Amino acid sequence: MRGVVLHGPGHVRVEDRADPTIQAPTDAVLRLAATCICGSDLWPYRGADAVTEPTPMGHEYVGVVEEVGDEVTTIRPGQFVVGSFFASDNTCEICRAGYQTSCVRREPVGAGGAQAEYLRVPLADGTLVSTPGVPDADLVPSLLAASDVLGTGWFGAVAAEAGPGKTVAVVGDGAVGLLAVLAARQLGAERVIAMSRHTPRQKLALEYGATDIVEERGDEGVARVKELTGGLGAHSVVEAVGTQESMLQAVRATRPGGHVGYVGVTHDVSLPGEELFFSHVHLHGGPAPVRRFLPGLVDAIWNRRIDPGKVFDLELPLDEAAAGYRAMDERQAIKVLLHP
Ligand SMILES: [Zn+2]
Predict the structure, then answer these.
(1) Closest Cα to residue 229, out of 254, 198, 194, 247?
(2) Secondary structure class of 294 (helix, strand, coil)
């Protein structure tokens, strides 16, 4: 099969790779209908994460089940399925508490490289959620978004306790931040402040229900959020970047007693203890347990109540993945969908 392999900073190639096979009796192999490039793929692409050997890329996927192992009982060949970037049994105590990305048996699905024609998914029964039937082509991007960016934005909004009567600020205007705006509104937030200085992203944030746009960053961004909230700060802030500046911006834009939901993969972030102590801010986040939200998100997409697929503003054949990485790296595209 064809698949994307990262060889070093800025150097991705689409190559012939071995077809995945069933390795454990709980596995499934999918023929992918669509896959995509994630903001987090840019960390190794930019050299911020070390690349020591050729690495298959991609962890977002939707597709049709080709084959299942002997112990798989609920997932069947022919089903169209969505899954998350960590495989989980969905039965252990941690999963049942809603933290499937910390499942005691978790395995990274991305290790197999989802930017490819086929993908092996471990723990198929616990990991995959099937759709009611084969989706119309126009639903595929939205179902693919549910695999990571929608589920992650949703977790960010839930972790920040977005809800009725709340003012929610979102730090980060990548796909996750934009979908956190959508999630906050769906969860009933009264006011959603999107922090973005890029016109096309501001436009999509407004379409997804943002009520205010703040272009300033850092301390100026914090000051603007306070101005918009009677000097107090937002009740809920979603952090969807993962840098020192964005984490501090999120903490400082939150009112005492408020909640930060952090879902940007942190890189070299350290928080000042004394400031944190006196802030009275709740912090919760981490790798989003997308599996917790998947059944509800698939239903909302299937019934066309939400349209998260709009974050894909560039679609390319899998073989042109390198151009897709460049477009995301240069911020010419919000998110790139690849057709295997
Ligand atoms: Zn588990």
Answers:
(1) 254
(2) helix
Hey, how many other C-beta atoms are within 10 angstroms of the C-beta on 98? 13
| Ion ligand 1: residues, Cβ under 5 Å | 88-89, 92, 95, 103
| Ligand 1 midpoint to CA 45 (Å) | 31
**CA 296 – ligand 1 centroid, Å:** 19
| 272, 71 Cβ separation under 8 angstroms | no
Quick: pLDDT tens for 221-237: 999 999 999 999 999 99
Residue 50 clears pLDDT 90, i.e. is over it: no
**pLDDT, tens digit, 9 for 90 and up, residues 243-282:** 999 999 999 999 999 999 999 999 899 999 999 999 999 9
Helices (H), 78-217: 93-96, 124-127, 140-147, 149-159, 175-186, 199-207
Rounded distance from Cα 101 to ligand 1 centre (Å): 8
Q: How far apart are CA 303 and CA 139, in angstroms?
A: 10
DSSP conformation class of 308: G
Tell me the C-alpha distance between 252 and 237, whole Å: 10
Q: Give me the chain's average pLDDT, please.
A: 97
Ligand 1 centre distance from Cα of residue 145 (Å): 23
What span, in angstroms and rounded, lies between the C-alpha atoms of 118 and 7? 20
Q: Each residue of 50-65: b (16+ CB within 10 Å) or e? A: eeeeebbbbbbbbbeb
Task: Report how far residue 86's alpha carbon sits from residue 88's, in angstroms, rounded to the nearest whole number.
Answer: 6
* Ligand 1 center–CA 126 separation, angstroms: 8
Percent residues over pLDDT 70 in the chain = 100
Rounded Cα distance between 117 and 152, Å, is 24
Tens digit of pLDDT for each residue in 65-106? 999 999 999 999 999 999 999 999 999 999 999 999 999 999
Cα 227 to Cα 48: distance, rounded to the nearest angstrom: 35
pLDDT tens digits, 1-19: 999 999 999 999 999 999 9
